[in-house]
Design a protein that fits this description.
Length: 437
């Protein structure tokens, strides 16, 4: 069933019909398609292009289609080219001939553009809400576990940090992600309805009216851009990719920390799986899947960037390829935020193991050098003195604080009894953390 048969003499090939159809995926847009049409029809009546009577009949028809779909009475399937054809043909079935007036002063080009803007805006707001939830979970996890642990650079033990500091780094990352989404929404919040195919319309329509009805900030400035702009999807996909990159880094740490080698955390049974052959195994599959799905979301971004790069103005059918990657990416991101949130909420932090891990690895070497600097030595010389002490400690299999004062003095006269307090791990962390947050 088509909206455009009039100009053709013979039928479209079945192969082409299948190739062209987007209904199987753009059915997700049914809600936005209906509210967009309702705003459009109300505007047509306000501008005396349709009568109030006609507009009411069409709006009632669209509302009854909406409830039939929601109640499962009307299935979005069949021989339709896309969700827009499905709606128009079903409207005509519901309200009769007057339904044929719905598409006055509109093209599917501005129709699909308004549908996607609305859909992606609502979904981006949903992602922001979910980020808020996980930010709350991270804060609780950090506050309940201010235990000291080794901090790493190059995956080598570096300086003492707290678990709270470590996990709150992800709080900062996800807070930036929220800002990125908020800014993308701010930029995209323009109404393309009324651009029509590419050149506007000869009818005296009112774009401000549909803009208010659909709660956009303003109408788009340029019609040709309005129907062929997909920047907003690319911005959202970039923000989604960065969220996934952050989750992938966190997943990697959860996987590493739950190994017997680290043994810093335990991922709950709910988010672990077993092995079909090795009875002892507890595998961190949830974290691995999040890390794996990151590639998929990057792929969605690359797919649309590549689709868009060679398209001349204005609408071209290539743009139908924006939908599946966007739907896939947003569904994946939402699922991953929910899983990560639950996984963090049920995570067991092995505080003693984290605390004990601090004792080996010279995590107070920098502070030992700072001690000498406070006593008057230049930092570069202090660095070298402590480097020599570390060589000795490695030979004796001792920590710096396990050398007695005579041993320390053999490296520098500046060492006094107060060095032990200065390089104590708890003291170093409380001095360092003071300036954070
Ligand atoms: N299914 C199409 C899409 O997603 C709708 C717009 C069709 N426009 C057209 N001129 N054929 O892009």
């Amino acid at each position: 069933m088509k909206l455009w048969g009039g100009r053709f003499l013979s039928k479209e090939s079945k192969l082409m019909e299948d190739f062209n159809s987007s209904l199987s995926f753009d059915k997700k847009l049914y809600y936005e398609d209906i509210i967009g049409s309702i705003a459009h029809v109300k505007m047509l009546a306000k501008c005396n292009i349709l009568t109030n009577e006609e507009s009411k009949t069409i709006v009632n028809g669209l509302n009854s289609i909406m409830s039939d779909i929601k109640e499962g009475k009307l299935k979005i399937e069949g021989d339709y080219e896309d969700i827009h054809s499905f709606m128009e043909i079903n409207l005509i079935k519901t309200v009769g001939e007057v339904g044929k007036k719905l598409h006055t002063a509109r093209s599917r080009n501005d129709q699909v553009a308004v549908d996607m803007r609305l859909y992606s805006k609502y979904k981006a707001l949903d992602v922001i809400d979910n980020l808020d939830i996980i930010l709350g979970t991270i804060k609780i996890l950090g506050n309940e576990n201010a235990v000291i642990m080794p901090g790493y650079t190059h995956m080598q033990r570096a300086q003492v940090v707290t678990f709270k500091q470590h996990i709150m780094a992800y709080y900062s990352m996800l807070s930036r992600d929220k800002k990125r989404l908020t800014s993308a929404i701010e930029i995209m919040d323009e109404n393309p309805l009324g651009c029509c195919a590419l050149a506007g319309t000869t009818y005296d329509t009112d774009r401000e009216f549909t803009t208010k009805e659909l709660e956009f900030k303003k109408p788009v400035d340029n019609f040709m851009d309005g129907v062929s702009d997909r920047d907003y999807l690319l911005e959202l996909l970039s923000a989604f990719s960065i969220i996934m990159m952050h989750f992938s880094r966190l997943s990697e740490e959860l996987i590493l920390w739950s190994t017997k080698e680290f043994n810093f955390i335990e991922i709950s049974d709910e988010f672990s799986t077993g092995s079909s052959i090795m009875p002892q195994k507890r595998n961190p599959d949830a974290a691995e899947l999040i890390r794996g799905k990151t590639g998929r979301v990057y792929g969605d971004l690359m797919s649309l960037l590549t689709t868009m790069k060679g398209i001349p103005l204005a609408y071209n059918k290539d743009m139908q390829e924006d939908k599946e990657p966007f739907f896939d990416a947003v569904d994946t991101v939402l699922k991953c935020i929910k899983i990560m949130n639950e996984m963090l909420g049920t995570l067991k932090i092995k505080k003693d193991n984290m605390h004990n891990a601090v004792k080996r690895g010279f995590l107070n070497a920098t502070e030992a050098a700072d001690y000498l600097v406070n006593k008057g030595m230049a930092f570069r010389d202090a660095h070298s003195v402590i480097g020599n002490i570390v060589i000795t400690c490695e030979k004796k299999n001792k920590a710096i604080e396990e050398l007695n004062l005579d041993e320390l003095k053999s490296f520098s006269d500046l060492f006094e009894e107060d060095v032990y307090e200065f390089i104590d791990y708890e003291n170093t962390i409380s001095r360092g953390i003071k300036k954070e947050m």
